Give the backbone structure.
Amino acid sequence: MSTSLLSVPDAMAAAVEHHRQGRFAEAADIYRRVLAAVPDHADALHLLGLTVLQHGDAGGGVDLLARAVVERPEVPNYRLSLANALRVLGRRAPALDALMPALVMSPQRPDAHVFRGTLLAALGRCEEAADSYRLALALDPALAEASYNLGNALQAVGQFGEAVTSYERALAHLPQGAPFHADIWANLATALFSQGRLADAIAAHRRGLEVRPGQPEIERTLLQWRNLEPDADPLVERAQREGWCRRHARGLSAAAPSFDHDRDPDRRLRIGYVAGPTLFASTHALTVLPMMEAHDRAAVEIVIYSDLLPDRADAYTAKYRAATAHWRDTAGLDDAAFAEKVRADRIDVLVDIVGHLGGPRFLALAHRPAPVQIAAFVTGTSGLAAIDWALADPLLVPREHEAHFCEKILRVPLAYLYRPMYQAAPAAAPPSAAAGHVTFGSLNGLVKVTEPVIRLWARALLAVPGSRILVKGNAFSDAPERQRYLDMFRRCGIEPARVELRGWTRGFQDHLRVLDEIDIVLDSFPYSGVTTTCEALWMGAPVVTLVVGRACGRYGLTLLSAVGLGELAAATEDEFVAKAAALAADRPRLAELRRTLRARMAASPLCDARAFAGSVEAAYRQAWLAWCRP
């Protein structure tokens, strides 16, 4: 080498030692000197590519690693490194293409199969990913990472029982101090939650907190899950949420700082929506999107703050963008920087539309970036002193329940909006017309279908001789879960012949068509259905709901009342059974509702986007006036 007395082998040995010791600048310098002398030195290209990649230059790493592969195409490690660099760049499909020849060359490498599974999962090909993880485990059954990733892939396709088994296997083989230990407990909790095993899910999250104490998101999830516990006291829930906020918002500004906004009460207001990662084809598109599209642009100027990653954007994301004056991509910002962006935009009213506790941007509101801050679509109090108001209607949060909230209640006639984003087939005739018996049903998430709920549903079944029930839940793809629920029904006096448990459906239209087989939907409690109730009504299936003393359990009342079916909301369990039995006996009414409910709903306040947007704008104006004239 012209710039060193060392031979190329000696120089490479010295560079590798620097690399091993973490002296990357020294290593990179020698690699470059080697390449100056031997431009096609594959090892130098490969190791310099890794060094560049480790220093954040993924593009430069890809170029060097691709050259290494050209020089030595028979070396699997070069291809693996190139695939990883492409993954870092977000180029997952090319990364998979680069990886596949390495797998052909080294089919006995478990790590390569795990890598392939990770790429496939990121591309949404979770069933293929699961096969890759299984191949890795066949080669090394104790590979905890493969079991963990297999659990994730299985959970993504609704195979929750196998997912739980995979997570438990990962925990059994987990090396001491593994970085993803707490993540396994968190994902195990999610799988158990999806099976409806709430107590087990809570226990798993608590184990995760033992491994990694003080995780705000896990603690926040546990607070949200309190909505599903039938004996939870809303005043205790408020105290717990306020305690979470005090712990995790400590040092942030909860008191309103000085704002120099023009206090003209009648001027056009600048409204900021905190949307988190929700603005794609999710349930938010049924409610938030039509509201944004219906806003009066003369009264309000809309700014959206979106944490949606680019690869999740879809046609609905484009509709959201078209409905707003300004779009801010905020996924890469921490909460403090997010709050500074809101301040710089001079937002008058900042509205959290993510839901309970504000999702991943909740603590950004604790920085108090806007004069007026509001929580919308609430299921309970946020507990955050920096949120001034909660939007609610009189049925969702009656006056006597205002003490459940730390926010002041900002009244609107109806606190929910529903506009289907799908083309649904016409409602079918009630299935009882052909079957000769009434079929009750539920499509709510199984975590809402607890043993107390099943006991109440069983009473309705026993009150209607010959009736049956169809319950849909993704976890029913697993035979043990089906049996667990059948056993709960049997303990309540309902034999398995009267119960159908329907599992995973691949398409949304297939999901909706299940409602064609249900005469009457029985709601869950203490957390009632929301979107699922709207879907049932749209398909002509009436819903009987039990109204409880918390906001999360009163959506059934407010939705049914909005479409003129408030009489189907029961105040007690006895009344719930009586209403379900009376409706089941009234076959002409069931047929009439099936024919007319969709048109009735479409003409109701529940589907009136302009009226909803107008009422929300009036509420924003009321909150603004309160700030202008304290």
